[in-house]
């Protein structure tokens, strides 16, 4: 079926294709680059339950976003698997794929980013509920380095079991996200590449970003994607591969010997704002149009005050058509950083 809705474009001509939904602000890890344990300790106050969007509210908003051109929904957080019964939400969202809002020619892509800690027990239910793909974060294969980077002292074995289970139930090929922090896990890049080479899974090395205000980010900690490619290529020769689609965040590189591919996400050294078609829905229902935003547009308030679908759609459309974001492109030119950026766990990575 076709839809007659006019697809909005922002001030730089970008459409809205990708919605990342943060389903919880809580997490069972304390990665120092995202939720440092010294800040998010036992006394930290997370959002009370009634402030979270309900599954019905998320689904209602997702339907509106699909109508406006979104064809990819990614559940994230915080850690999405710690939200109780998240598979019910997956099932509700998967149901939208056959709904009137989605163009039959472009099936909706429904995926999730997780730290994998609960994946061994959740993978089957997620798959059965309609999840088709999954991204698992894994920053190191070494006990001590991984323990440091999850802030909880856990080794990688449980996450690796989660990845194997996800593969077994049919969530493969799996994307494995690794945030590279110089001086902490940059020595693990080649090992990670070696481990997943030939499995069909794709490791994506992400430049450590200055999201939020609390992760102690410094440019010195960033390992440029170019260096990641050079280091891996020295061990296993790589050649560039074409992007799968316009606006793909990861730059693709494939092994010359045909044993698979890796990706690099160069958000700091080679910003890709001009193709950024992503919006984020925070745990409490704010629409955020840039990972580095200082504020978002509240959709929960109007929704709970009785706004109709048309009214909500016009709110989203208004925000998107006024969007000017290109923080990463401007980062180096900014003399004064935005005062209070939103934290990653709240808006979803
Ligand atoms: N908890 C889930 C996880 O870790 O996969 C989902 C949420 S997490 C915020 C989403 C992604 O953002 C993860 O792959 C994580 O490694 C990445 N991330 C978090 N903080 C980051 C930072 N400062 N720079 C780059 N990537 C970051
Ligand atoms: Fe939790 Fe993911 Fe943030 Fe790590 S990156 S603290 S796993 S939300
Ligand atoms: Fe998109 Fe903002 Fe990142 Fe640029 S800085 S790519 S606009 S999220």
Could you explain the architecture of this structure?
The chain has about 350 residues and is an alpha/beta fold. It has one domain (about 20-345): Aldolase class I (TIM Barrel, Alpha-Beta Barrel), CATH 3.20.20.70. The protein is about 30% helix and about 15% strand. A twelve-stranded mixed beta sheet has the order 7-8-9-6-5-4-3-2-1-10-11-12. Strand 5, helix 6 and strand 6 form a beta-alpha-beta unit. The chain is globular and about 55 Å long. The model has no long low-confidence stretch (mean pLDDT about 95). Bound molecules: S-adenosylmethionine and iron/sulfur cluster (2 copies). S-adenosylmethionine binds near residues 34, 114, 137, 344 and 348.
Q: Which helices and strands occur, and which strands form pairs?
A:
Blueprint: E1 18-22, H1 55-67, E2 72-76, H2 86-94, E3 109-114, H3 119-129, E4 135-137, H4 143-150, H5 157-169, E5 175-180, H6 189-196, E6 202-207, H7 225-235, E7 238-240, E8 251-255, E9 261-265, E10 278-281, E11 286-288, E12 297-298, H8 300-304, H9 309-321, H10 327-330, H11 344-347
Parallel strand pairs: 1-2, 1-10, 2-3, 3-4, 4-5, 5-6, 6-9
Antiparallel strand pairs: 7-8, 8-9, 10-11, 11-12
The structure holds S-adenosylmethionine (SAM) and iron/sulfur cluster (SF4) (2 copies).
S-adenosylmethionine binds at residues 27, 33-34, 76-77, 79, 113-115, 137, 177, 179, 206, 208-209, 211, 215, 344-345, 348-349.
How do you describe this structure in short?
This protein has a single domain, classed as Aldolase class I (TIM Barrel), CATH 3.20.20.70.
């Amino acid at each position: 079926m076709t839809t007659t809705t006019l697809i909005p474009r922002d001030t730089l001509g970008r459409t809205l294709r990708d919605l990342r939904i943060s389903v919880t602000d809580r997490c069972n890890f304390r990665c120092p680059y995202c939720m440092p344990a010294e800040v998010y300790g036992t006394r930290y106050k997370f959002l009370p339950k009634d402030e979270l969007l309900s599954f019905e509210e998320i689904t209602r908003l997702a339907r509106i976003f699909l109508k406006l051109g979104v064809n990819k929904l990614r559940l994230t957080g915080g850690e999405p698997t710690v939200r109780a019964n998240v598979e019910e939400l997956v099932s509700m969202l998967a149901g939208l794929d056959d709904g009137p809002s989605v163009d039959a020619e472009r099936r909706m892509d429904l995926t999730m980013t997780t730290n994998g800690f609960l994946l061994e027990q959740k993978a089957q239910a997620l798959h059965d509920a309609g999840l088709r793909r999954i991204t698992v974060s894994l920053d190191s294969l070494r006990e001590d380095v991984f323990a440091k980077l999850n802030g909880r002292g856990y080794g990688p074995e449980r996450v690796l079991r989660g990845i194997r289970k996800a593969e077994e139930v049919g969530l493969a090929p799996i994307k494995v996200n690794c945030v590279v922090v110089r001086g902490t896990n940059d020595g693990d890049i080649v090992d990670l590449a070696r481990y997943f080479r030939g499995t069909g899974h794709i490791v994506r090395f992400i430049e450590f970003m200055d999201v939020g205000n609390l992760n102690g980010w410094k440019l010195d900690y960033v390992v440029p994607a170019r260096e990641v490619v050079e280091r891996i290529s020295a061990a296993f020769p790589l050649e560039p591969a074409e992007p799968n689609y316009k606006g793909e965040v990861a730059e693709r590189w494939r092994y010359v010997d045909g044993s698979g591919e890796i990706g690099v996400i160069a958000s700091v050294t080679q910003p890709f704002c001009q193709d950024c078609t992503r919006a984020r829905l925070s745990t409490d229902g704010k629409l955020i149009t840039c990972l580095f935003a200082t504020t978002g547009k509240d959709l929960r308030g109007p929704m709970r005050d009785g706004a109709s679908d048309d009214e909500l759609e016009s709110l989203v459309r208004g925000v998107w058509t006024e969007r000017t974001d290109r923080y990463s492109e401007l980062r180096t030119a900014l003399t004064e950083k935005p005062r209070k950026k939103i934290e990653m766990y709240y808006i979803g990575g």
